[in-house]
Design brief:
The chain is an alpha+beta fold. Helix content is about 35%, strand content about 25%. The strands form four sheets. A six-stranded mixed beta sheet has the order 4-5-3-2-16-15. A six-stranded mixed beta sheet has the order 6-7-8-9-14-10. It has a two-stranded antiparallel sheet with strand order 1-11. Helix 3 packs antiparallel against helix 4. The model has no long low-confidence stretch (mean pLDDT about 90). Pfam families: Exo_endo_phos. Its cofactor is Mg(2+); Mn(2+).
């Protein structure tokens, strides 16, 4: 291999170093609170893109027999643990059990209240989907009461709206009895988190439905290009800082109970973000990483599939299956995790 570069290749390598630096920063950011630098935190959203760009640079230098491929290749290989949070490369064997608990999480975007998709009776179609998949517990984010929603199979429920006049809320529906319930009540936002202590046979679990601060970004690159970039960066940065505080409040509630926990959450952030690390540090694991397969997409950002919804469970609860669905009835896709119940 040769190391000498011509002028054009020097320009290419300069861009290579820039994107290598971006990827390195993105690797570090999950350990840096957004309040330290909201601007830098935005780079974390681009981590998968930076990895692909660096992989492209590495292949470019390999094809030209240049040792310069080492920079990007080492960075890409060093980020395998991040890739595993959005894509599971191998099929995982599913344990066959007699008794399991199936928990679904779904941001339903107000059941198409504002006709963002050209589909009628979205509430009824979501009801039919849930009936077909037959979860034992369903957690809804971006929830509202709607005539089309039929949840009669779930005799127990807990709805929470931030104000009496607010349409936007969050809800938990359960086939098992709810013994206790409560709300975290995030300040200065419509977003919120609730929990329900559910009696399952002789055990009690705490199930959370959580919705962290939205980034308030239209998932269309052309539309984003029309926005004032400074205002966009400022808005996203403020949302990250709110998410940090909301995750802290949620984690504090974790410490207030000894009950095993399952957290159904729309993070509005990536699984390799600071807030994800903050929550997982409380003896939780990511059900998708444990039992998922393939691409963990839960949201489409134009051409970029994102996994911003997750089901986290206490490590003492055995996760045996995880499903991603490709049903287009919201701007999010539903997910469901299955857990082994004691005999």
């Amino acid at each position: 291999m040769k190391s000498k570069l011509n002028f054009f290749q020097k320009v290419i390598f300069a861009f290579n170093i820039f994107f290598a630096a971006c990827l390195l920063i993105a690797y570090i950011l999950p350990f840096v609170p957004p309040k330290f630098s909201a601007f830098l935190s935005i780079l974390n959203l681009g981590l998968p893109v930076f990895m692909l760009i660096n992989l492209g640079f590495a292949l470019y230098w390999i094809l030209r027999l240049k040792l310069h491929f080492i920079v990007s290749m080492l960075l890409v290989l060093g980020g395998y643990s991040y890739v595993n949070k959005i894509f599971i490369f191998k099929d995982k064997s599913k344990e066959q059990v007699k008794s399991s608990l199936k928990v679904m999480s779904y941001n339903v975007r107000l059941f198409n209240e504002y006709d963002w998709i050209d589909i009628d009776n979205v509430g009824q179609k979501i009801s039919d989907f849930i009936a077909e998949e037959s979860p034992d517990v369903v957690a809804f984010q971006d929830y509202k009461r709607t005539d089309g929603l039929d949840m009669n199979a779930f005799p127990y429920s807990f709805e929470k709206f931030k104000t009496k006049s607010s349409k936007i809320g969050i809800a938990i529906y359960s086939k098992y009895r709810i013994l206790n319930k409560g709300s975290i009540d995030f300040p200065n936002t419509h977003n919120n988190a609730i929990y329900a202590d559910i009696l399952i046979h002789n055990d009690t679990l705490r199930i959370y439905a959580a919705h962290l601060e939205s980034l308030k970004v239209i998932p269309d690159v052309k539309q984003l290009q029309k926005e004032n970039h400074q205002k966009l960066i400022s808005r996203v940065g403020k949302s990250f800082m709110k998410q940090q505080e909301q995750a802290r409040m949620l984690a504090e509630n974790f410490e207030d109970t000894d009950l095993p926990k399952i957290v159904c959450i729309d993070m509005n952030n990536t699984p390799f973000s600071y807030v994800a690390n903050q929550l997982l540090s409380h003896n939780l694991e990511d059900a998708f990483i444990e039992s998922g397969q393939g691409l963990g997409k839960t949201f489409d950002f134009d051409f970029l599939p994102l996994r911003i919804d997750a089901i986290l469970n206490e490590k003492s609860i055995e996760n045996i299956d995880f499903k991603n669905y490709d049903i287009r009835l919201s701007d999010h896709y539903p997910i469901m995790a299955s857990f082994k119940l004691s005999d």
